[in-house]
Design a protein that fits this description.
The complex is a heterodimer of chains A (441) and B (575). Chain A is 54% helix and 17% strand. Chain A is α+β, with helices and mostly antiparallel strands and 441 residues long. The chains are: A alpha+beta (441), B alpha+beta (575).
Chain lengths: 441, 575
């Protein structure tokens, strides 16, 4: 079957204009939307450990002495320091097994202390030690929380995730029955540790009811990728591009190499523009998507350039523009099918998956589309312009020695190409000849 | 290339994949969960378990033999039969045909011998599994969680060493350097996917996927200067050993540290000499007196490699010294020829050797286990930690992704894979099926090679693998389209296939080599996940090229070798 030849190169100015507009949109977006939407991989944030433990007892003190309360191993100790000296009172978990008994015991034995059981049936052996203890009692109630020992009312990690939202990372710490969770969240503004802590609390309180969550520890964490790592990575990519340039220069020609590299940068920048405009969260998977697109774009362009290189000696009497049209058209089925298979592999992820993996798929899908467009429109146009520039000097020398048919000089073919629509006769005939020659060998 | 040669190479790759994937398959399919938990525990836990089980087994066996000496040996104790057999042979007695309980007892000289045999059978099994667990594909932090380790900068020892106070900003910049080095040590190939961050002002939070072995984590924290060569004072050593034998109460301080006896002159220190027991744990063997002055500091060691001594079969560590180190070591060994040299790591004497001649560059030392030697080499290859770290806490952490997220992700990945497969069959018919088979094989090859690099599977890396498959189709598409073009020119089926593969060859090569160049540069110069991505990409490209040019070609050859072959390559018409 004779393949249809599409007048691709005719649209080169439109293609470049479209790309320029998209890139410009990216730059405008970058300025207006204040850069990237960085995830916790790229910026500092907070790490917090919380434990689900319902409030068991609330304690207030209304006397003139200093009363401190401490908990260790489920045993509650009150130290009363006053004018008459110090007094230690210990309420062991053995003697006071439930919150109700503990509250009654404390109220009874220490004058001025009023302890109210919030959940009288909770076991005192699970009272949480640590954050905020030992505490000095005052009129503001001190709430003691007790870890849940009832498996039926466990809060699962999924419920935690739902309560905290998608941008927060939640992990179970240790065994699940202990109900300790680690929360990591990014800090996009300049919120303080206290603000973040309060917002986490608020979310958890609305989800699970007041005073059910104890904060065990809050800490500032740095980004997974430091700025030196990022600049280092960018530098590495630049070195990689330089090496590619050398290889393509060696295997093809400088004009091909330059066109391939510019197309590669074009594809990558368009993807970056896409990420900026839609404010997609930048995480480590974004890096993976960008690198994938670099490889993908390169692959596409080289396959088309390979066809141009192959056709060049066969289609000697044709102009560069016709040559490009024929070569791109011949590779078109391959370009479409290859892009389609990749899109098929990604699309279910973009639709069904959630979180960063969905973003990864969306970014890749966009990148593949851009790659399919640029390898057909941008890369051949660039090659046309660059090879025109570089071949001018050489052509003068060639023309001086051998008379060249008019059609080969690049400038004059422009009118003719517009009318070339489906003439594949010349290449086919030539290639038949070549095929026979090969068979003879 | 000849068809037979191609078939041979493909089979060779299949076998290689089998070898690489064997540990993973064995670990996940044939090792029960309790055994896995035991094997991933620390060596001390394994030791406790093995001796505990041996004690219990011995008691039960004794009860059995008392009840009925002629009873057959229960299956669960069959692990000691080989040892009993060996003992019978050593005693030059006939090996019993039937292993009754009595016969087994007859095979051991003493109860202790039987206990040792029982313990060793548990130990060998668990230690072998522990080794195995290091070679399997791990599930990442997002899918299964792992170990969270909190480290703290040891500012006090830094200040003592450098004689000045550290400001908070200095500490955090030193910690930043530490993080970069830890990344390199823990994630050599960039595919382990740990999460390493600064926490607070002076802490580092590390999360490592899988049941990380606390001992190995510790080995990555060791400083370069933790290793030193020191000369042994022989006379004082024998004096010390006699002294300790006579005064056992004087060996340790209340804190459990070795006491420095009063008779030691200035410039000499007493240290413990440790050997690896059968678990690879340090066991105190004896005491030595060392010259306090360090003969050669570990900072002069440029590389360490583990090998096996060809004569004794013992693991050997080969240390390469830098130029300055070589000079120092040559001077040291030439002035102290005939004396004993000790290798000291973290204050423990790990190995001792008599200096027979002056040595300059390379030192070979036995006394390190293979693991120790290879961990040491990783530590030595990377820069020293600018500030030492101490472990504050270690805790297991759960998966960072929810179960529904994981399952919806996996379903999506499967659907994608299926769509690609169906598409290929729809477009290229039987040839598409060939491509699909090659793609599946491609997936296996990638998993096999990456498991050898300690790859960790995260949801993203699984998606990446499938994506590579979607892209690997490309090589097949290029070949098939070429063959279709040739067929369109009216060539015979054989000629078209031949020309199609031949013409597509350089297209595929050029397109893939360019990408491989990018991958290699990123893999050599990049760090962390960039490096991991590049390694995965490189493996994927090579494997997809292999599949298109070898495996698919082989299947085409099989079709073409029939009489009147039909290619079945296009959805249009009868081709």
């Amino acid at each position: 079957m004779a393949k249809k030849i599409f007048p691709i190169i005719k649209y080169r100015f439109i293609a470049v204009a479209v790309s320029a507009v998209l890139l410009l949109a990216g730059i405008v977006g970058f300025v207006l939307l204040d850069g990237f939407n960085l995830g916790i991989d790229f910026q500092s944030g907070f790490s917090q450990r919380v434990q689900i433990a319902p409030a068991a007892v609330s304690v207030v003190y209304a006397g003139s002495d200093t009363v401190t309360l401490d908990v260790s191993g489920g045993d509650t100790t009150l130290v009363v320091r006053g004018d008459s000296g110090s007094k230690y009172l210990s309420f062991t978990a053995q003697a006071y097994p439930t919150a109700g008994q503990l509250a009654a015991g404390m109220t009874e034995q220490v004058p001025g202390v009023t302890a109210t059981a919030i959940e009288p049936s909770l076991a005192t052996s699970g009272i949480i030690t640590g954050f905020g203890l030992p505490a000095t009692l005052s009129a503001t109630p001190l709430v003691l929380n007790s870890a849940n020992t009832d498996t039926a009312s466990y809060i699962s990690i999924d419920e935690m995730r739902k309560a905290l939202g998608a941008s927060t990372q939640v992990q179970v710490v240790g065994d699940e029955y202990r109900q300790i969770f680690q929360i990591k969240l990014g800090n996009d503004g300049n919120a303080s540790e206290a603000d973040i802590s309060a917002s986490v609390r608020e979310k958890l309180d609305t989800a699970f009811g007041d005073a059910k969550v104890v904060t065990l520890q809050t800490d500032f964490v740095g980004p997974k990728f430091s700025s030196t790592l990022i600049t280092g990575s960018i530098l590495t990519v630049v070195v990689a591009i330089a090496m590619i340039l050398l290889y393509v220069w060696f295997r093809f020609k400088l004009s091909y190499a330059l066109a391939a590299i510019i197309t590669l940068c074009h594809d990558t920048l368009l993807l970056v523009a896409f990420i900026v405009i839609f404010q997609l969260e930048v995480s480590s998977t974004t890096i993976a998507a960008l690198l994938t697109i670099i490889g993908y774009s390169l692959n596409n362009v080289i396959v088309i350039f390979d066809r141009i290189r192959e056709n060049k000696p066969i289609l000697k009497e044709m102009g560069t523009m016709e040559l490009i049209d024929i070569s791109v058209s011949q590779s078109l089925t391959r370009t479409l099918f290859s892009s389609l298979t990749t899109i098929l592999a990604i699309l279910p992820l973009a639709i069904l998956a959630t979180g960063s993996i969905q973003l990864f798929a969306i970014e890749l899908a966009f990148g593949v589309l851009v790659g399919a467009y640029s390898c057909n429109f941008i890369a051949p146009s660039l090659y046309l312009w660059i090879s025109k520039k570089t071949s001018v000097d050489k052509k003068l020398i060639v023309e001086a020695s051998i008379p060249v048919p008019a059609a080969t000089s690049v400038g004059e073919v422009e009118e003719k190409t517009a009318s070339v629509v489906e003439d594949a006769g010349i290449p086919t005939a030539e290639r038949k000849l070549k095929g026979k020659r090969q068979q003879k060998k | 290339m000849k068809k037979r040669g191609r078939l041979f190479i493909v089979l060779l790759v299949v076998v290689m994949c089998g070898i690489f994937l064997y540990p993973t398959i064995k670990w996940y399919a044939f090792v029960p969960q309790e055994t896995k938990d035991l094997a991933t525990g620390s060596k001390i836990q394994i030791k406790e378990y093995a001796s505990g089980r041996a004690t219990k087994d011995l008691r039960e066996l004794k009860a059995l033999v008392a009840a009925d000496p002629t009873a057959a040996l229960p299956e669960e104790y069959s692990g000691i039969i080989p040892m009993a057999k060996e003992n019978y042979q050593a005693m030059k007695q006939s090996v019993p045909k039937k292993w009754t309980v009595e016969a087994v007892f007859g095979g051991f000289y003493s109860e202790q011998g039987m206990f040792d045999a029982l313990e060793s059978s548990y130990r060998t099994e668990l230690l072998a599994l522990k080794d195995l667990s290091g070679d399997v594909l791990q599930l990442g932090l997002d899918l299964r969680g792992g170990m969270s380790i909190l480290l703290e900068a040891d500012t006090a020892s830094w200040e003592a060493k450098n004689g000045k106070k550290l400001s908070a900003t200095e500490v955090s910049s030193l910690l930043g350097d530490d993080i970069a080095i830890l990344n390199e040590r823990i994630d050599q190939f960039g595919v382990t996917e740990p999460d390493i961050r600064a926490q607070g002002t002076d802490q580092i939070l590390i999360e490592i996927p899988g049941a990380a072995d606390p001992e190995r984590v510790n080995s990555f924290l060791k400083g370069k200067g933790s290793l030193a060569f020191q000369i042994v004072d022989q006379d004082l050593t024998s004096q010390l050993q006699t002294y300790f034998k006579e005064n056992p109460g004087e060996i340790y301080t209340d804190a459990g540290q070795l006491k420095q006896p009063a008779f030691l002159p200035a410039g000499r220190i007493a240290a413990g000499y440790y050997v690896n027991d059968s678990y690879g744990l340090d066991e105190l063997e004896s005491y030595v007196v060392l010259y306090e002055e360090i003969g050669l500091d570990g900072i002069h060691i440029s590389d360490a490699q583990s090998s096996t001594n060809s004569v004794t079969g013992q693991p050997t560590a080969n240390f390469e010294l830098d130029t300055t180190g070589g000079e120092i070591f040559y001077k040291l060994t030439s002035t102290h020829t005939g004396e004993t040299l000790a290798v000291v790591q973290d204050g423990k004497v790990k190995a001792m050797a008599t200096i027979t001649e002056a040595i300059r560059n390379s030192v070979q030392i036995t006394g390190f286990s293979v693991e120790e030697a290879s961990d040491l080499s990783i530590v030595l290859k990377t820069a020293a930690l600018p500030i030492e770290l101490t472990v504050v806490s270690q805790q297991a952490v759960g998966a960072s992704l929810g179960e529904d997220t994981v399952s919806s992700g996996l379903i999506a990945i499967l659907i994608g894979l299926l769509l690609v497969f169906l598409f290929m069959v729809a477009i290229y018919k039987r040839s598409g099926l060939f491509a699909d088979i090659a793609l599946l094989f491609n997936l296996v090859i990638m998993l096999a090679v990456l498991s050898a690099f300690n790859m960790t599977l995260t949801l993203t890396s699984i998606a990446g693998l499938v994506l590579t498959v979607g892209m690997a189709v490309d090589a097949n598409v290029i070949i098939f389209e070429r063959i279709k073009e040739e067929l369109a020119l009216g060539k015979t089926v054989e000629a078209s296939a031949k020309a199609g593969f031949a013409k597509a060859f350089w297209t595929i090569m050029d397109a893939n080599i360019t990408t491989i160049i990018a991958a290699l540069v990123l893999s050599q110069l990049g760090s962390g996940s960039v490096k991991g991505f590049a390694n995965t990409l490189a493996v994927g490209i090579v494997s997809s090229m292999f599949n298109a040019l070898f495996v698919v070609k082989l299947m085409f050859d099989a079709v073409l070798s029939r009489k009147n072959p039909r290619l079945s390559i296009s959805w249009r018409g009868n081709r």
